Structure formats: structure tokens, C-alpha cells
Amino acid sequence: MLESRVNKPRQPTKPSHRKGPLAEFVGERRIVTALCYDLVGSTRLLHLLDIEDYQELIAAFQNAAKQSIVSHSGVMQHEAGDGGVALFPFELGAKDAASLAIRAGLGIVEGCARVGRETGRDDLHVRVGIATSVALIQDTPDEKGEPVTAAALAIATRLEEIAPADTVLVSQDTRDLAGRSHAFVFKGAKTLKGFTAPEKVWRALGHKIDVDRFYAFGRLGGPFIGRESELKTIAACWERVAATGGEILLLEGEAGIGKSRLLREVRKMTRDRRSGLFFFQCLPGGHRSTLHPLLNSFMGAASGQDDQLGLSASAVATPLQRHGIRDAETIETFTYLLGALGRNQRLADNNPKAIREKALRAVSHALAALCANGPIVLAVEDIHWIDPTSRDLLAEAARVARQLPVLLVVTSRPGFVADWLDAANPTRLTLLPLDRVDTRRAIEARWSEPGQAMLPGLYDVIERVSGGVPLFIEQICQWVSENVAADTMSLSENVKPSHVSAFEEILDARLNHLGTARDVARAGAVAGTRFTPSLLRALLPGLGKKSLARAADTLIEAGFLARIRARGHTAYGFRHVLIQETIYNALLRRQRQALHRRLFLAVSQNRQMAAWIDTGSLAEHAERAGLIESAIELYTAAGTESSSRSAMVEARNCLEHALAICERLGEGHAIQRLQLSALISLGPILTGLIGLNSPPARKLYEDGVAIARRQPMEDQSKWFPIYWGWWLTGSDFRIMHDRALQVRAMLAGATDPEIKLQVNHCIWAIEFNLGNHREAQDAIKAGLSLYNEQSAKTSRTLFGGHDAKVCGLGQLALSLWLTGQSKASDAALSKMVTFVDRISHVPSKAHSLDTEAVSAFYRDDYGRLTEISTRMAEFAGLHGMQSLSGVSRLFSGWARAHEESLTGGHAMFLEGLSLLKSLGAVADLPIYLYMHATLLGLAGEFEAAVDVTNDAIEKARETGHAYWLAELHRRRAVLYARRNTTKDHIASELRSAVDIAEKQGARALLRRAKRSIQELGVAVEC
Predict the structure, then answer these.
(1) How many CA atoms lie less than 13 Å away from 474 in the CB half-sphere?
(2) What number of helices (H) and strands (E) belong to the chain?
(3) pLDDT tens digits for range 966-994
């Protein structure tokens, strides 16, 4: 069979020395892979299109096809109108040639789709066939070594002919060669035209993730022993998936117990009936790395980005689209969450809760799309290392999976608490050590028969020290076969009864016999889950390239490492994370520190050397290297990066760890500056996660201000965000006012216009709420004269979450109306709306809509308020803004109660108020309570209305929220009159309303108070 020829070592044949015509064909037999592609329905397109348009379309398609072939090292053989044939030469190596041909074929399909989109045609489709065979390579100068005879050419052509549109079909031999690098679906045995024997045909789905625990890291030749009961349970779950819907499996067990191998069996068991297979792996230390299982998957699938640090938006979109996920919002959301270069930054304007809602919707849509063609298997390994964002998305996947044909399998070590997964009611399988019988079978499977006969007494010893753990059994048997001579009847006396300590000692003993390879293994254990030859050279500068390569090959042969392909580069990884952990833990502290230091320095100078090491991981290397200040800076940067992707929990973890390191170092000047940088980044995260007035947020800013005040006066402006947060987290408006004035005085010498603007931002926000309209308007005018739209793009995030100009114009519009300047108020409001629509900043638009609604509320313009509330609700729904949704219902209910139905409107109002209270978003609570009391009064519930008004006045006086206080007293006077309270009480309330309005200069409220005096017929001295 061809398969046997493909897998044999290939030796060049000797040149023929025969005379005659055949003497020209001297050469040798080699393995080549052929690719054939053809546009579907090109004849129909020719009749539909103008001839010039047709030629342009074909040329664009051919350019895309040839670009994909050439970029993957293929050689065009010939191009025939709407199709072509390419070869992937023997010089590439058989496996690499097959893998590159498949990548090229998938690239042709993607290129065809791209050309279709660009030309506005949804009927442009292509078929691709790929096959591998022995070829006769001609050894004459004019032919330059290209194949002259190869069955692959004919097989590829036949596969292309039977391929469905936009698919890549490959032969059995191609699939065997590329089986570790690509995922396939078996399409059955097909009898191809011109061939008598059926050919097994596979559809290529895509490139696998970098670190595939089953293909790249596993030794798959050994038998699978035990676990019959577990396999039956899994098989039953798979049957139910196809029949009734999704199933969730949780595999628990100690490291090395066989969780990964059991997943390998799941892969084999489900092969014939699944439409997709998706594996993700959580990594040690990943709890601070946002979405790292998914990110590593995309980084592995991405190609052509070797010169680019980070993941591009197209590298996210392309695999998603290839798997049928084409929803634009879903792709955009994942691109943003993964921090891809070129992502849509507008999503950063949404609050974290809105981003989370989008992410959960994206998971649901993605799973539904993946299941469109039938059941899928989704596996996530080692969730005890999962990061918070991945945890949330996995919990949603588990919830959604019950309604879809999904087998979701997750693995973890014992003791990991997964309450978030328990809600999905998973089937739990706890993997226990192998029993005595299965342990003996495992030993026999890994130990040669001659060895068994010579050393029968070792069975009991190996069983005892391995504890029935398959990985330990394998390593011990390997060590025995390497080190125990025929006349040795027992293991070393140093091997202890504990199987864990035995594993450590045996690994160390095996490494000690490997010379230079031992140093490479130790360096690799420090590097982590993946490392390249260039990284090893940085860690072991005394070793040359050849020595490192030989050492790596030795470790691969010994079963410690596996060679993997990572974005076009050779890379290595440990076959099991427990091997890495054990080797690392055996290193002396000084050895670890020296290796971490070398790695940190090398990667810091050239991040492309190890693009998979993110900022948080680099920070950990710096910390372990003893480079503490660098570690703090990097943890802070990692927190900021996570925050920019709305991964607030990961951001908080990084920043709080940075601060914890600072505390261990004391109070030196340099450390204080690092502390302040971390506090500046952490503050907005705490206020967002826990609450603006939460004790942790207040303490953070109070501690930060105490540190900032110890810094030189000329540096104070650098720490302005700390002072801003200190002002913002004041417990009431009076304290906030006092702090705002302190900040203004402290930074009076600051020259930065942005700082001056934001100081005024503090002032106007507080002065308005205190009812100091003149001061508020002065601060607004002074601040907006300093406004710079470019600086504002950064400041919107740092200071208040909204644009200062939008806030200033809105606050000015409200203050002008209250002070009786209606036309000027309308002009400011119009400017605000025009400006916010131009900058398209989501939180600022929400701020603007709220201001528009309050303005209409002031004017009792119920029709306008209804229209604004409708727009507000639509905007809130589009961006997942719960607090804005609550405000929209509150104001919509108010308008409806006055124009349509008091009962229905009041109920809607209370729904909105309840939502706002649950969210802690009641900054304007005295006004909301005023509205509630008014509606109760309209319903004749005067006692209840007075109680609510009393509560509103008390809260307004407690907090200093005074600008609506005159109206609250007027409302209480009206309610007193309606429940027949004495005129003295009514007069007292109206007197208070007049006094407060006059003091504030609130002419509009003063007019209302005087009108009520006339209507109620109460004598009040004015």
C-alpha cells in the first residue's frame, strides 16, 4: 500500500548508467503532495457576466489562489483558466509538505470567499483536492528536479471533482502525514475515476492549536488500560447528545492519572458522528491571563504573522468564519476580548457589565453556529488554571450546551471548587489510580518481555511506588529499562514508598544520565509551556545551536519533550505539565532565579522571541528573577491591558498583586511611585466592580492621596487621577466639595491644560449639586475653554467615564434653566447633542440622553420626555446598559402617568426606580423620590406621598444634594394642603422653598414656589 511507502525512510536510488533513450531519466523516488483546485460553475458565470467583468473576476480569483499556494511554499505546475495544479516539493519533507498543502487549500477557499465579498457575488465557490504519493524526480538540469510521474496528481484531480463547494478533500496518505497538525472529518471510502481500489477520503477542517495534548505531547502507541466504566458512561453521554441534546462531563483526577488520555479516547469514540472537534487547554499561572485558552488556540491557528507581536483581528475572524461563525457582533466581541490588533475600540466605551452581556451572547451564537451541521465535541482541559473571563464564558457554554448537540468535557484536578459549573449539573467522573490488576497490565505493556522475565521481582516494587498512576508507571518503567541491569534485582534503596517522591527521584535520575540534555530540560521547565531554540540559546548561552538541537532531540526520544509547530517555527513543549512542574521544583532557588533573569532580559529586549509570553507572564518571570521593580511595572501594565479588554477581574488580580509586592518592599521613594501607578489603574476597576462609594474604593484613594502628598510638589500633577478618584469617592456632596477645593488649591500651579480642565470638572459637578449655580457655570466656562478633543480621548476613560465637554454643556444647560435662562439653556443643550453625536462615545451619549430627559422633566414636556425615553431604551438595549434602561423606564413612566394612565405609568416608574436601586445607580435619588411622591399625591395617597417627600428632604440635607431642595419643600407644602394640614405648616414649607431658591439663584424654582403660594392662598412673607 502507498501508506507503508509514505511512512518508510526514503533513500535516493542510485543513478542508472544504462545507455539509450532511458538514460536521460536518471533520478530518484520521492514523496510529493499535489493540490488541484477549480472554480465551481465558471461556465455559468461566463454567460452571466460581461466578458471583461468575467476576466477580471477570474484574474482576481487566480491571484488569490496563487498567493495562497506560493505563501505556503507550493510550486504552480499549470494554470487552466478557472483552476490550477500545484506541487509541494519533497525538499519540504513529507509531513511539512502535506501540512502546507492543506493550509494552502484552505487559504484558496478563504481567498475565493474574499474575492466574492469584494465583488459583491455570493455565487463564487471553489473546490480543492489534495493527495500524496511517490513521484519520480527527474535529475536533468532543464527540469530542475520537478516530478514527472506521480499518482498524487491524478488522485488530487479526482478528489477536486467530487469535493462539495468550498471544501478541501484530501487522500488517506495526506491525512496520515498531516494528522497531528490538522483536524479532519472522514467522508467515507470513494471509488475514484480511473482507480480500482476505493480511496479513503477526508475533509480538512483547519489547523489545530499549537499545543495539542493528544497529538503533539502524547505517546499514543501504548494500549489504553482500565477505565472501562468511565468509557461506558462517556459513550452513553454521546448517545444522548445525538438523541436528546447537550451533555456536560467533568473529569476529575490527580495529575498524571490519565485525564488527557481519556480525552483521546473521547476523540476516537466520537469520530464517525461529530461535525466538529474543539479542544482548549488552560495553562499554569493562567488565572491572570485573559481568555488564554482561546488566545493560545488562535495564536496557533494564525499564520503569516511571524513578524507581528500579538494577534490580528483577521487572525480571529478567519478561523471563526471557517467554522461557520459569521455573525458580525460575535466576531467583533471575540476580537475585542482577545485584545486583537485592529479590533473595534468602540467596544471599550461600554461598561464591563455591557461587555459581559455581549460576551455571553457571543458564546451562545458561536455554539449554535458550530452545531449547525451536527453534534460537536468541546473539551477544556485543566480548568483549575482557568482565568475569570474564560470561566464566565465556559459557564455560559455549559448552560447553552443543554439545548444544543454538544458534548462538553472539562477536566480538573481534585479539590477545585467549580460552583459556576455545578449549575449545569455535569456528569462527574472521578479517575482513581489503577487497581493491582490494571497496574500490572500497564507495567507489562511498557516493559519488554525479556525484562519481565529477568526482573519479575520488580512488579511489586513498581506497583508500590507508582501508586497506580499511569504517568508514574510509564516513567518508572522507562527508568528501569534504561538503568536496571539484568543482574539487578531491586530498585535503588533511595526510592521512597511515596509515589510522588519516587516520581521526582526517577525523573531526576533519568535526567542525570542525559548530560547536556538535563540542562536543556531545566531551562525549558523555567520557560514554561513552550520554548524555541532561540529562547533556549538565551537561557543557556554556553551551548551552541547544534548542541541544543541534539539535546532537544535526546529529550524528545526519552519522552520528556515533544516537537511542535508554532506559527511556522520549531518549538518544544513538555509532554505533560507534571513533568515540567517536577523538574522545575527540583531546581535550587539560585538556579531558578538565574534562568528566570536570563529569560526576562532576553524577552524584554526582543518580545518577538517569545510572542506567546504575555505581559502578565513576563511580570511573573521578573518577580521570580528577583527583579522586583520591573515585576511591579509589568504587573501594572498587564492590569491596564486586561482593563482595556474589559477583563476587570484579571486586571484587579494583576494590580493588587503589584501592590502586594510594593508593601513587601517598604516605603522607599521609587516604590511609592510604583504604588501610585498601580493605584491609578486599580481605582477605576474597583469603583466599577464594587461600587463608587464602596469601602475598598474609598480606602484605595485615601491611601493613594496620602502617598501622593509625600511626593515632590513639582510632581503632584502626575498623580492627578489619584486626586480625582479621592474627590469622586467622597461619602457625600459636602465632602466631595471640600476635596475638590483642596485639589484645586494643591494643583494651582499645574500647567497642563487637561488637568486644569478636569479640576474644573470636579468643581462644576459638585457646585451644581450643591445648588451653587454661579460657581458651577463659572467652572464650566473656565474648563471648556481648555478642552482639547485629542486629549479627551484618553481623559474620558480616566475621569468620570464620559467626555468633559458633553458633561459641561449638559450641566450648563440644566443650570441655565434653573436660573431662569431658558433660551441659553436650549442653546447649550443643542450644542451638547450635536457634539456627542459627532464623537460617537457610548458612555457620553448615555450621559447626554440622561441630561436631555432631565431637561424635559424640568419643563414638564411630557411628549418630549416620551420621545427621549424611547431613544434611551433603544440605546440601552443596543449597548447592554442596565442603568440607562432603568432611567428610561423611570422617565417614560413619569410621562405616561401624566398623559395616559396614572396607574400604568406609576408602575413603570417604580420598575425603573427598583432597577436603579438594585444597581446602586441613584445619584439623583432626591429627584426620583420627588417624582414618586408626586405620583402618589396624584393618586390621592397623601400620607404615603408625604412620607416619601420627608425621606427625600432628609437624604438631600444629609448628602448636600441641594439643587432640587426648593422643589421638595414646595411639593411637601402642596401635599400638606391636600391632606388638610394647618396653614402654618404649609406656609413654613413654602417659605423654605422661596428662601432656598433665592439663595441658589434658581429663578425657575422661585417662580414655582410663588405660584403655589398664590394657588394655595397662603400668606408668606417674601
Answers:
(1) 21
(2) 45, 15
(3) 999 999 999 999 988 888 889 999 999 99
